[in-house]
Each structure stands twice: as structure tokens, then as C-alpha cells.
Amino acid sequence: MKIFPFLAIVILFLSCSDGKKSATNKKNESIITKQVVKPEFQFIIDSCNVEGSVLIYDLNKDIYYSNNFERAKMGHLPASTFKIANSIIALETGIVKNDSTLLKWDGKKRWMKKWEQDLILRDAFHFSCVPCYQDIARSIGVERMNAYLAKMKYGSMKVDTSNLDMFWLEGDSRINQFQQIDFLKSFYQSKLPISERTEKIMKRMFVADHTDQYKLSEKTGLSNTNSIYNGWYVGYIEFKSDTYFFATNIEPQKEFDFDKFVAKRKEITLKALKQMGFMK
């Protein structure tokens, strides 16, 4: 008669184990369903004669879409997409007061003609004025820069006194497409350790296009390492019913037209969003 309690314990243990396995399997299934491969994105990229990956995140459904998830995990220099974080840190530290703060031109020749003027922060951001943001980085300083980058969990930046005004353009700093979206999602959902005022100013400044159907916040980036260009297009697009985050990273084929290449960063992303039915 004593054997029955023992058997009951064994049966109970086995049923609990099966329950745990079932729960684990369901958890694994949910993780798998959060990443959907989109061959259509690869077709868009191939048709533009570039190499790269598109990563799109559906906030409501909690699903990632990409043509190449492995490549989306590869780190690259953030280039001018770092102006998002740089602007936030500048606002938090008081280096700039708001998006109308005037950044004076020093009169020296610059790579782009539109940079050769006094610019308010908002215009410097959208014109992607590198010298403007180099001045900002130098004013922030190494210690504060590293502290904020760590707090905001922004990729893997390598910042010291020797590269304070260049670390996002050259060197060993890296951020991947998932990290770009994680950062933007935290910012969008008010989860970054920054003030409400900074967040409000940055969200206003970030907007590039606003229509009756959507609001688009975006930033491009471009780096050149050993004569190999790498292009970014990151941001999010808000509709009444949902928000979609995107991080596209591309590199040109051996022979390419520079002006066409820089335009393809956004072109590829918008085509991918339209292919998904998120945009008309």
C-alpha cells in the first residue's frame, strides 16, 4: 500500500516536467514568431545594386521583419545616426538650450555648402552638419559622453580624448540594427533616463515629414572606412493605429554612383514599408 504515494509523487513530478517543457516550447515558439524573414526586402536591395539589410519592427505586434537577420546583428559605425544621441546628451547637459539654439559658423570651408552658415540645432540635425556636432561633442567632454552613452545603452562606443569628435565616424565604435531600434524604441516609449523636457524637444526636432496619414522621424548616416562606404537610415513612422521602427544598413557594389547610393538608404526603406502594406 505504501507504493501508491510514491507512484503518485513520480507521476506528479513527470507531469510537472512535461508542463515545464510545454511552457518552454511555447516560449521558444513565441520567440521564433517574433522574427519574420522577408525575401521581398532582398529583392528590393538587389534591384538597387547594393548589399545590405532592412530591419523593421512592428510595435503593436512585437514582430521584427528582415531579409537578413544575421547581417542585422553586425555592428557598424553609427555615423550621423549618432546625432540623435548627441543631440539628447547636448540638451541634457545644457550645451544647447533647445532646438533653436544657434550654432555659429567659424567661417572655414566645409564639405557641404549648406553647412557654411550659422545654423540652429534643428537645421544642423537635418542638414547632418558634422562640424556642428563635433563642436557639441567637444563641449560635452569624454566623461559626460561616456556616462550618458552607458546610461542610454547606446551600442558599443569607444570614446577617449583622442577621438571625442570623431568616434562615431571612424575607429572601433559599433552599433547594429537591432541596437538602433532598441534605442529608438526606448526613446519613443519614454524609457531613456532623460528629462521630459529633453524628450519633448528631441521628438519635435526628429520629425522630418508630417502628413494626414503619418508622422515620419528619421536620420541618415554615412561612413567611409578604407574607401568602403556604409549607409544608414533609421527612425520610426507613426500612424493612428500603429508605429513601425526601421534601421536599414547598406553598402555599395564595386561600381556605384555616390549620389544615387546615398538616396537609396531611404528609398529602400520606404519601398520595404510599402511592400509590407504599412505605407501607400
Automatic annotation (TrEMBL):
Domain of life per record: Bacteria
GO molecular function list: beta-lactamase activity; penicillin binding
GO CC terms of this entry: plasma membrane
One of the protein's GO biological processes: response to antibiotic
EC number: 3.5.2.6
Modified residues (N6-carboxylysine): K83
Transmembrane spans: none
InterPro entries in UniProt: Beta-lactam/transpept (IPR050515), Beta-lactam/transpept-like (IPR012338), Beta-lactam_class-D_AS (IPR002137), PCN-bd_Tpept (IPR001460)
Pfam families in the record: Transpeptidase
Enzyme active site: S80
Family named by the database record: Belongs to the class-D beta-lactamase family.
Protein name: Beta-lactamase
Organism: Ancylomarina subtilis
Taxonomy of the source species: Bacteria, Pseudomonadati, Bacteroidota, Bacteroidia, Marinilabiliales
